[in-house]
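Forwarding the complex inputs:
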Amino acid sequence: MDIFIQQVVSGLATGSIYAALALALVMIYEATDVVNFAQGEMAMFATYIAWSLINAGVPYWPAFFGTLAIAFFGGLVVQRVVIRPVANAPILTVVIVTIGLLVIFNSMAGWIFSYVQKPFPSPFPKEPVRLGSVVLGSHDLGQIGVTMLVLSCIWVFFRFTPLGLAMRAAAQNPLSSRLAGIRVGWMLALGWALAAMFGAVAGMMVAPVLFLDPNMMAGVQIYAFAAATLGGFTSPVGAVIGGLVVGVVENLVGTYVSFIGTELKFSVALALIIVVLLVRPSGLFGRATVKRV
Amino acid sequence: MNTEHTRRSFFVAAMILACVLPFLLSNFRLFQFTQAYIYAIALLGLNLLTGYNGQISLGHGAFFAIGGYVAAILMDRWGVPYALTLPIAAIVCLAAGFLFGLPALRLEGLYLALATFALAIAVPQILKYFERWTGGSQGIVLIKPAAPFGLRLTADQWLYFLTLAILLATFWIGGNLLRGRVGRAIVAIRDNPIAAQAMGINTSVVKAVTFGVSAALTGLAGALSAVVVAYVAPDSYNFLLSIILLIGIVIGGLASISGAIYGAFFIQFVPNFAQDISKAAPWAIFGVFLIVFMIAMPTGIAGAIALIRNRLARRRVPETAPATHRPGMQATP
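Prediction (whole assembly, two chains):
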């Protein structure tokens, strides 16, 4: 039973990373109808920026928030420069452009920081937390705490601030929003900026566990895809729940189903994505889209 | 027709050049050309699906891998002659593509991209997992076949000519397929699925079969590549291979047959030049090209060439057909 609880908590920790990245994907999807295949790589690049700051002697938390600010502007710039020109193009075009971004961020990281794995500090104490006979990793708990805090902030932002409301309006009905005086183009850019920021949180939280290298986020991203698909690409709440579920399931399957282990990790995500898409394409919490022809 | 004439003489010149090359180049350079031709076959397959039929595949490297491994396992385990493994690999991939295409029917645009993306990432792991068949991460080492019929060619020269012949055959078949009724159905489904259905096209069947044929072409290329390289390993079929193929059709030209050739030369030779700068440079260049092409030149190199050719043709004979008319394309019986 102790092992089970430990595995669930560590699954929730991984799941919170998936949740953050999945939420980033969902935000961009809601705002611009694009699945950003470069989301993970943008997060990875932001983590390298944090690493550089920390290496330059900046203490952890200032570096953390500094990175969030840089990621925010990075996301803004990416949307304005690269995504906006193809905003009205066919899906294929937009997918290819985000794949181009993926390739660029990945190779730039390799070029600037080399492909050698780098250790990344954790802001949480090394000693595990003991609750009775259950031993929980402090980083795991901290990771859950930080992502949940970020998620609550974003919920408050969208629910209770005028800017959040304007962003939701712009995503839902661009034309009416424009008529109501909302600058839709900038709202979409803001969506990308916030998504880049979540990605950065996910990257910095997962880097102490996975070690920092340019391909660090490939596995995380595919699980975030699975999470967003499971929860539904049209539902932020679904993305978070999907992330947590996927994290826990992945951990439990890895522990208790011996033939899968870690060797077929990606295939599990692949199978999950395909099954969800076949059985319930809109996900558990998403709304089915009805298209007018 | 004037343009038809230039087109034909250009083709003849290219063929003569292609046949002379093996006797001018070093074995290594020749090997690179063979690889470019192999890429061209794979790109033709992907372009059929993504360019013509509008089904996004970010995971065609998977079919390249299946083709390669089918050929390698057949040769290594059962001593099947390599020439026989090629059609078998194509047939296996036809089936695999068709089967993957069936559920993919229900997935539109982005979701299909997602599923194939996941497929591309999962492939190396799956290959490593079935170690008993695939030799795990070590891969399978094969023997490079020598020239048959007592031809006085080196192994590399023979494989070059074999690949060239297969390239011509697939492009001839592919070209005819796309020019005809089937080709129009494939394109109609991309442009307006509902109208296509209303015209009596069985969209599900056409889409699934297109997926199968596309996978078969790419798998054939994969099998050829296994024969030519004489080695298969899981990590040569990683996610980046699928991305390379995507880059090839985008740069060469989406929905263009000749584009597959331009794209193949691009993905084969550009990294060679860029590698001198940094290990990451080829990919940085690829990424920038992808985005710049999508924004500025979505029809790729083939589109640019067609544009230039039409401009020239119009200047020469202003009274002939409009720019969009391509002689020889409308020859219906």
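The interface with chain B takes residues 34-35, 37, 82, 85-86, 89, 91-93, 95-97, 99-104, 106-108, 110-111, 115, 218-219, 222, 225-226, 229, 263-267, 269-270, 273-274, 277-278, 281, 293 of chain A (CB under 8 Å).
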